[in-house]
Amino acid sequence: MVSWSGRRKVWTIILFIAPTLIGILLFNIYPIIYNVFISFTNRNQYHPNPDCSQTFTGIIEPSCWPMFKESSGVSEPYRIQDPPFANYSALIGDLFSGPGMLAMGKLFLLIIPLIIANQINKILDRQLTRPLPSYLVWLGALVVSALLAWLLDIKTVLDTLQKSGDFFVVVFRTILFVILTVPINYIFGMVLALVLNSNYIKGRTFFRAVMIIPWAASTMFIIMSLVWQFFFREQGTVNQIMKVFNIDPVRWLSDPTWAFAIILLVNLWFSFPFCFNIILGALQSISADQYEAADVDGASYWQQLINITLPLIRPAIVPAIVLSAIGAGGFQMFGTVWAITAGGPTRGAGMPGATELVMVYAYKQVFQVRAYALAGAFAVIIFIFLFIATLYSLRITRITKGAYE
Amino acid sequence: MSRRPGILMQILQYVFLAFMTLFALYPIWFVILASGRVGDRLYTLNLLGMFIPTEFTFTNYQIMLGGDPHPFLSWMRNSFFAAAFTTVACMMVATSAAFAFSRFRFYGREFGLVLLLAIQAFPGVLSLVPVAQLLTALGLYANVWGLILAYVVGNLVFTTWLLKGYFDTIPIEIEEAAMIDGCGPIQSFLLIGLPMAKPALAVTALLAFMGGWGEYVFASVLIPAPDAKRTLMVGMYSIANAQNIPWGLFAAGAVMTIIPVILVYTYFQRYLIGGLTLGGVKG
Question: Are residue A191 and residue A70 in the same domain, yes or no?
Answer without folding.
Answer: no
